[in-house]
Task: structure prediction
Amino acid sequence: MSKVEDGTERGNIPVREHPIGPFLRMDRMPHIWCPTCGIGIVVKCYATALQEAEVDPDKVTIVSGIGCTGRVAGYMKLDSFHTTHGRAIPFATGVKLGRPELLVTVFSGDGDLSGIGGNHLIHAARRNMDLLVILVNNFIYGMTGGQNAPTTPEGARTSTMPYGNFEPPFNLPHLVASCGATYVARWTCLHVRQLTKSIKEAIHRKGFRFIEVIAPCSTLYARLNKIGTGFDLMQFYHDSAEVRHDADTRDVAIRFQDAIICGNFVDEEKPTFLELMTNHYKKVLGDRYVPMPAEGGMIRGQD
Result:
């Protein structure tokens, strides 16, 4: 009988920890995501990026909203917050303002962040809040029954538009770029290496960083539109994705079963909200202004 890392014996087969095991709450496995769902791939890319960037896990906070992707906060072995629907970004904003030394990541879906949370999305980008936002886009509300989402392509069928969607969807990279985001990228779940590299790059940037990840939802989106399995969608990404770095975000809108433009679209430096606030109050108030210390929030009980 061979012993494994946790001291148990499993016959003659050695059991090794998964490469991203240290970043996962293994006591909560198995997860609730459907077979061939792409969210787990994005989690793997994020964890790998943290490892390669040599980020201290104690300096990382992950915030999620409601929905399939919202479950990420519950599965990652980091300081994590599973917030109310559409409120992941304002919650993360509060964390960042109170603990500016942390890497604060918002990890949620297209419905949560661009639907009910859309107002928070555009204003966080406008303010250049120092947040990393990873939005998993599967074009549908997956957890609540397959309703039409703000990203559902025109012509695609959902449970609330069974004859096809006639509403124009958001072009999310263009939306956040036009509002002021300093780093904007899009990849699919198939582009594992590129996505990992993009997340790693974004970790080392400051300001409002936004990465959209196109992911398969085989249970609802693919079934309702009769476009095959999750594997078929991954094959579609392989055949239809076009990498165009620095593309004009006005030209990267997604149409139903059409080309998906991927790449790093925006990468620039601008003062963050905290930098603007600190400089402004120093100028106006002088020595009366006491800025937030670099090591984080001032807790009265520890003064």
In short: The longest strand covers residues 260-267.
